[in-house]
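Work Package 3 (structural annotation) set out to generate three-dimensional models for the target panel prioritized at the project kickoff. During this period the team completed the workflow that converts sequence records into discrete structure tokens, so that structures can be stored uniformly alongside our sequence database. As a representative example, we reproduce one entry of 344 residues exactly as it appears in the project archive.
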Amino acid sequence: MVDVNIQMVFSQLTHSLHYIYTALSKPVGLLGIHQFTAMGLLDGRMIDYFDSENQAKVPKQEWMRERLPADYWERGTRSRKSKQQWFKVNIGILMERMRQNDSDIHVLQWMHGCEGEANPDGTLRFVRGMDMYAYDGDDFLSFDDKNGVWVAPSPEAEPTKRKWDGVLVLKEYTKGYLENECIDWLSKFVTYGQQQLQNTSPPEVSLHAKTSTVDTDVLLTCLATGFYPADIVLRMKKNESVLTADDGLMSSGVLPNEDHTFQRRDHVEVLRSDLSAFSCEVVHEASAVTRVWGETLYVIFGFLICHSFLHCLKLCWRANIFLSISRTKLLLCPTSAQVCTLAC
């Protein structure tokens, strides 16, 4: 039997408010995947939602429904409809700029928001802001809040950077929104949803191995899921030595579940004969759990392969794995063949 040590892990209290917009160049014809979606996230939990099929901004938390008046949702719906048209126009501009045709699906995403840190008096202090765009899963443009300029990581984004840098009012508005208006809304939402935000859910941890393309190896995976809030530490170890990317360790990062909790999946390929030397430790705000591979180890044969963007979308949807945005880069399932559960 594995001993489970329970301990509380305290960290400095921070909150975040982010909005994520995703637009496809054309419909994909898959259930639940819309040509345009927009959502608000408070501390990683969805608080509002809009899609191109229903055409209405709606609350996703009961306290949002109770505390915000009808005209808030009406204004929000008008704003989302306006942004939907903006995305449609700009996907067309980017496709033309990159000499792309309509035979493939193209994706434009925008993520913006802010993080605040609690002061002793309970107010929130601005920590950082984010305003970034991605096209077909690659970084396209981001706002440097400190220097007040747009950053273009690719030549295709340079025309947009030059145009937006030349609009002083846009830069002033973006900086002002991130540092002031966003923090004001974040403070309101944290106050409104305070009771729910204080609730925590410990992770459920599962350990398994599946066959590798190399007969003598297996792919070891540690999955932590169902936890809230999103901050978590997951360590895979060999004889108590923590594995890193230099050892071939790969991580999904923290991803959202449909029930507003989170999941993280780490894996590494190792010799089958070394299985007993490996363990996985998960440390969360609400708990600390250590599990060790042993008699309960089971092997899953085969891989889940997607051979195209649409196929990957379909498999990810069926597997209840959602397209998501990491803290550092906007991610989409790739267009080349990948293991879907690792790519999405």
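The chain has seven helices and 19 strands.
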